[in-house]
Amino acid sequence: MFVLKNAWRAITRAKARNITFLIICVAVSASTVVGLFIMQTDKDAQTTIYDTQRVDAVISPKANGLGNGKTARPLGWEQYSAYAQGLQMTGNQFNVYYYETAPAKFRNIHAVGSQSQDLQLVGLSDATAIDKGPYGSITRTNGSNIDFSNNSSDSVLVSQALASANKLKPGSQLSMEDPKDPNKTIEVKVAGIYKPANKTSSGPSTNAVYSSFTTFGSHGFDQASKPGDPGHDLKVVFQLSSPAAYDSFKENLSKSGLNQKQYEVNSPSLRDYNNSIEPLHKVASKVRMALIAILVFGAILALAWLAFGLMQRGNELAMAIAIGVTKPRIGWQLALETLIITLPGLALGIGAGSALSPLAVRSATSLPGIRQTPALSTLWQVVGLGFLVCAILAMLASLYAAAFRTSRLYAPVTPLPHTSDTDSKETA
């Protein structure tokens, strides 16, 4: 208790310096927790979370795949079917969704925008394809959705702009030219009105009429032209369970005969995922360098704080030794003084860093699945490093007492100069 009281008195005699160093301890500890959490989250995003991503894979022609600036035609249904059968034989598990577009000539409505704009019929395989169609996601604002059952009636979705320009509403009947026989018409009913996500008031996204693929295919729009012809687009998306399954999928596609010089396999979903974590990765790279600088600077400040405090205690230590206080007891007191400052600073810093870490990560990414609090392993790293620094400072303080030279107590004192009587008289 005597040593503790003396240590506390010594600390309070230099309040400003010790409070400043306490704040530095808190700041360095908190920064370390936040920095390690950001780096761990970045690592998780590139490994653990990445490995659990569901993957959408598409096959598309390579630019200049045929040489001389020519590109191969997009794959058709026969080729997709052949590759799908080959993949199933190799054990690949996958689901698919798809859409196909074709020009459509409507008799009783006109396109929005310039006179050259054409209306397009978009056949969707299921509800998944609605948000991943040729013009991005759409939001239904009125009416009902199209029916994707095989026994559905011919129903369509039209855009707000198209409905407004042609005075359409749910239940309106539309007539379009039969692609197999221009003299015949096909009647479809407006099921609902949609709003495109890109918010344009004209152009392809507002002039697209969505239907089920059953409606699209049963009326021959898939046979009227070929994928790659003007306005005709076919996109089949393979849904895979993980990036590992995606890698196996690409390998087996090559074995099934896909010409890798003319076609490439890529994943829009993985591309979007990697783009979403890119800001976090950039922040983590900067944090890594900043954390090294903070730790080095913090170590320098800790040594400076300790050295400055001990250098001013020479006379105090000499007096304590002179009255019989042993060096081990003095060393324990000096070590205790450092621990009283550094350990609370470490604890407060870890608490503050744990509270700030989620905010720091969320400012860089909104990725679902990330940790909301630092992992115990991260906190233990900071605790271990902090205890090591505290122990080193306490040991250095104790060693200073042990190495204190008692000969300084007996150093000769230089006498003060005295004046002679003659000098005194002259001065007088």
Automatic annotation (TrEMBL):
MacB-like periplasmic core domain: residues covered: 19-254
UniProt KW keywords: Cell membrane, Membrane, Transmembrane, Transmembrane helix
ABC3 transporter permease C-terminal domain residues: 290-402
Residue ranges the record marks as coiled coil: none
Locations listed in the record: Cell membrane
MF term (GO), any: transmembrane transporter activity
Transmembrane segments: 21-39, 289-311, 332-359, 379-402
Highest taxon of source: Bacteria
Membrane topology of the entry: Multi-pass membrane protein
Keyword Cell membrane: yes
UniProt keyword Amino-acid biosynthesis present: no
InterPro entries: ABC3_permease_C, MacB_PCD, Macrolide_Exporter_MacB
Gene Ontology cellular component terms for the protein in this record: plasma membrane
Family of the protein in this entry: Belongs to the ABC-4 integral membrane protein family.
Protein name per the record: ABC transporter permease
Source species of the chain: Bombiscardovia coagulans
